[in-house]
Amino acid sequence: MRRTRILTAALALAAGLLTGGPPAALAAEPPPAALAADTYTWQNARIDGGGFVPGIVFSRTEPDLAYARTDIGGAYRWQEATKTWTPLLDHVGWDDWGHTGVVSVASDPVDPDRVYAAVGTYTNDWDPGNGAVLRSADRGATWQKTGLPFKLGGNMPGRGMGERLAVDPHDNDVLYLGAPSGKGLWRSTDAGVTWKQVTSFPNPGNYAQDPSDTSGYASDNQGVTWVTFDESTGSGSTATRTVYAGVADKENAVYRSTDAGATWERLPGQPTGYLAHKGVLDAGNGYLYLAYSDTGGPYDGGKGRLYRYATATGTWTDISPVAEADTYFGFSGLTVDRQHPGTVMATAYSSWWPDTQIFRSTDSGGTWTQAWSYTSYPERANRYTMDVSSAPWLTWGANPAPPEQAPKLGWMTEALEIDPFDSDRMMYGTGATVYGTENLTDWDAGGKFTITPMVRGLEETAVNDLVSPPSGAPLLSALGDLGGFRHTDLTKVPSMMFTSPNFTSGTSLDYAETKPDTVVRVGDHDSGPHIAFSTDNGATWFAGTDPAGVSGGGTVASGADGARFVWSPAGTGVRYTTGFGTSWQASTGIPAGAVVESDRVDPLTFYGFKSGTFYVSTDGGATFTASAAAGLPSGDSVRFKALPGGKGDIWLAGGAPDGAYGLWHSVNGGASFTKLAGVEQADTIGFGKAAPGASYQTLYTSAKIAGVRGVFRSTDQGATWTRINDDAHQWGWTGAAITGDPRVYGRVYVATNGRGVVYGDTSGGGTGPGPEPTAHCSVTYTVTNQWAGGFQADVKLTNTGTAPWNGWSLDWSFPDGQKVTQMWNAEHAVSGAAVTAKNTGWNGTVAAGSSVGFGFTGAWSGSNGKPAAFTLGGKNCAVG
Question: Measured by CB atoms within 10 angstroms of the end CB, which terminus of the chain is less buried, N or C?
Fold first, then answer.
């Protein structure tokens, strides 16, 4: 149903948000005070899915070990005990935001602790950085990175093909990576540490979705798209002799090496006119299966074929389940049942209407059955039942006429995998979720298998705006692809996204400060209105009327009393209305494309910003006047908000490294602004409940302060700041929106570009340097993950005294000989079983009543008992 992934954040970043250091204008400012830190607990406001999952990879070595990759939201590991996914790339920071796009994942077929990810979001200039290969020896708990001399495209056309990254099943120090953009095939012989181009590989590809696209997005050569090994041609730890590779070239789509990658040849006799999306090898029966489409996907594809290549004889057989004349889709999803290799499955990934199709053969492609078929058109008979009660929004609130059904079986179904250890379990990715079944073989017995979302823990929405009203639901969101949600319980999936109308992407929303049941939202729409209103706090909606010329959502603001609204849509100028948008009038004095907000006290006052100028209206948006305020950012990467309860109290964040960049405050309705010293960069601003004993609301921002990029909180109007995230929780780019909760002190909601809405709760508050501690501490030690020979643990150290700390050093001894292998958010030293963990440069200041957290991975054998005692300054801490 959703054919586009949001590019708004990428386009904003391309304007320069992430390049270089702080602007020169900040060089003369005094150095900031010591940066304080607080320990937060982070989790997602549950949506469950919400984006495209182009790859699922099961381990061939260990049962129940699987990984999923997303196009913009990182990679995940399956947790069998809880049937959930664990995010693995939340550590990716602001400067490397592109590394949240994952073009390929490879699970080591020899050592199940090893996993690799090829990362990078765009191959054009939307992503300023190059791609990288990440490698982990602890199943993705921690990573090491090797940068590449080219870009990778986790969110580019063709991203459902693959896997581009592959590990030799015999010599697992050997890896191959298929590159886009004409960069060819690359190889590592030291387990991903270093990479060299395979110069003997003859064809870097030539297919682009749209060669005329001047942005470089659709015109990029999709390159070398997959690599697979014939494990029957190797033994022991000797490199596998026969390797196959797919290339984005319709006339020369498959290549083979029979000398461990030294030389390569075009595979003789292969079909032409198609791209090979997948190549899956059944070494037992000697077949290479190939799924072909006439385009690269993941949205397009009008014709496709399935082929079987006999590796011993070189015979090609067309095993397509339908005649070419009857296809209106390409094939992509492709898998073999490793327990019963004659069982093969494939998907019609680009069959958007009436539904995707899944095909299954139990005789190596000789005959096929399909997941659904027509009885008497338009009626369908399904071999499956669907239960989406865990994520009911997957119906999209639709009640379509046959042959369409709600929920759909899927769309963009390029990832399809049968569990190699369990013939009954199959998972497949769609444009919105991961579906799966655990009784797949009922298909063959004539019964029905059950499909359910297998996506909990995998959150992949791109968030454009957030509000937390003072009453009603704690969180309302505007999201790319899904429109938005109303969360009445952050730990539960909402029953439905916003409907009446459904926006393809929500771009902005607001509520009336003194009447929070009145809410307005705007967004993009394929056809129909771009604005909607609610009078029950977002529970139900009704559409407004668009003024002429509207082409997109833009930004919207509600007057404080909900009686009037100002809208700055795409495609036309700023408009205002009284009532619920049945007619609109043009605002004067403000340029088209301005960002608009409202004063949270005066219902007639609205504000705008465009290209360095701040605008003010005191007549309900009819006329705006440019403020004389100078020194504001000259570009349009700016977000600002007015403080609830404070007339004319405005905070503005934004800028770019080559100009003004930071955080500004106005107390006179925007007539003038004061730049906050010490805030080097800031991109969002939000407000939450005041700290205990404070009268002014708490500020939150995604910013760079004291040289550190992070999410920050201030309880004293920006005089001092506390970093509240840590190096393990960065989520790439967080520059779209942030808001505190007006009802819960310390709670903050953070917008990400692909990891959904993350929210954090504090364990304490306050800031300020003080003497080094000598006692008054407590420690919570938690093993968060454990596997054969390895584990991951989190440590929370709390200042239970009355004075703040300025530096800390925590000591303990392991009871069972465990060893620390890597630690984050703390420096460490080890002597036998004894461990010392010290603060880093940014988290040494811990206020009284606050906590600081760090984590590590370790090795163990026999037992993995918890340390019995922790000491700080030579004195024991309480152990929680």
Answer: C
* pLDDT, tens digit (0-9, with 9 covering 90-100), for 14-63: 322 222 232 222 223 334 445 788 999 999 999 999 999 999 999 999 99
**HEC readout, 239-250:** CCCCEEEEECCC
Least confident of 221-235, 253-267, 814-828: 814-828
Residue 561 exposed, middle or buried by CB count within 10 Å (0-12, 13-18, 19+)? middle
- Annotation marks residue 465 as catalytic: no
**In whole angstroms, what is the distance from residue 279 CA to residue 176 CA?**
15
pLDDT in tens, 549-575: 999 999 999 999 999 999 999 999 999
End-to-end CA distance of the chain: 49
> Strand runs (DSSP E) across 611-740, as ranges?
613-617, 625-626, 638-642, 650-655, 661-666, 674-675, 679-682, 686-688, 698-705, 708-714, 722-723, 738-740
From the list 38, 48, 71, 127, the catalytic residue is 71
Biggest CA pair distance of the chain: 82
What is the dihedral sign for C-alpha 455, 458, 459, 460?
Answer: negative
Cβ-count burial 442-454 (b if 16+ within 10 Å, e if not): ebeeeeebebbbb
Strand, helix or coil for residue 328? coil
d(CA 447, CA 646): 64
User: At residue 873, does pLDDT exceed 50?
Assistant: yes
Q: What is the pLDDT of residues 710-743, one digit of tens each?
A: 999 999 999 999 999 999 999 999 999 999 999 9
Which tokens go with 285?
Answer: 């029966």
- Partners of 290 in beta bridges: 279, 307
Q: How many helices (H) and strands (E) does the chain have?
A: 1, 72
- Tokens for 161, please give them: 């093909």
- How deeply is 235 buried, as exposed, middle or buried, from its count of CB atoms within 10 A (0-12, 13-18, 19+)? exposed
Contacting residues for 202 by C-beta, under 8 A, at least 6 apart: 255, 264, 265, 266
Q: Residue 775's pLDDT is what?
A: 64
Residue 620's pLDDT band (cuts 50, 70, 90): very high
Q: Report the candidate in 734, 712, 681 with the shortest Cα–Cα distance to residue 23.
A: 681
Q: Residues 181, 151, 680, 691: what is their CA dihedral angle, to the nearest 10 degrees?
A: 110
**Side chain identity, residue 358:** I
pLDDT digits (tens, 9 = 90+) for 395-437: 999 999 999 999 999 999 999 999 999 999 999 999 999 999 9
pLDDT (0 to 100) of residue 144: 98
**Calpha distance 853→836 (Å, rounded):** 14
Q: Phi-psi category of 562—alpha, beta or left, where left has phi over 0 and alpha has psi -120 to 50?
A: left
Q: Are strands 36-37 and 722-723 parallel, antiparallel or unpaired?
A: parallel
Contacts of 878 (CB under 8 A, 6+ apart): 777, 778, 779, 800
Could you write out the DSSP letters of every residue in 285-302?
TTEEEEEEESS--SS--S
Could you tell me the pTM of the whole model?
A: 0.87
Beta strands in 685-724 (DSSP E): 686-688, 698-705, 708-714, 722-723
481 is catalytic: yes
Could you tell me if 130 and 146 are in contact, meaning their C-beta atoms sit under 8 angstroms apart? no
| Catalytic position from the list 127, 220, 282, 481 | 481
Is residue 773 reached through a cis peptide bond, with omega within 30 degrees of 0 on the bond before it? no
Confidence of residue 268 (pLDDT cuts 50, 70, 90): very high
Please, are residues 319 and 305 in contact by the beta-carbon 8 Å criterion?
no
> Which pLDDT tens digit goes with each residue over 476-494?
999 999 999 999 999 999 9
Structure-derived torsion over alpha carbons of residues 331, 337, 343, 348, reported in degrees to the nearest 10: -20
Question: Which residue type does 124 have?
Answer: N
For residue 840, the model assigns a pLDDT of 83
What does the alpha-carbon distance between residue 566 and residue 575 come to, in Å, rounded to a whole number? 6
